[in-house]
């Protein structure tokens, strides 16, 4: 029983780590994109629709 519980705990921690990393990467990507939007508008002479 102890071996099964240890296996489940490791699996859960791995899944949580992957989900946390995905959230961090999503937040980073969002920050980069929102920081570049104004420069892209100016460079390509874009306007709001």
UniProtKB/TrEMBL annotation:
Query: Gene3D superfamilies, alphabetically?
Result: MFS general substrate transporter like domains
Where do transmembrane segments lie in this chain?
12-37
Q: What InterPro entries has UniProt attached to this entry?
A: MFS_trans_sf
Lineage, top-rank taxon, reads Bacteria
UniProt KW keywords: Membrane, Transmembrane, Transmembrane helix
Could you tell me what this protein is called?
D-xylose-proton symporter
Q: What is the lineage of its organism?
A: Bacteria, Pseudomonadati, Pseudomonadota, Gammaproteobacteria, Enterobacterales
Gene name, Swiss-Prot/TrEMBL: xylE
């Amino acid at each position: 029983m102890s071996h099964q519980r240890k296996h489940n705990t490791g699996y859960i921690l791995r899944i949580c780590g992957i989900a946390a990393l995905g959230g961090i990467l999503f937040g980073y990507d969002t920050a980069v994109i929102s920081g570049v939007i104004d420069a892209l508008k100016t460079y390509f002479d874009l306007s709001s629709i």
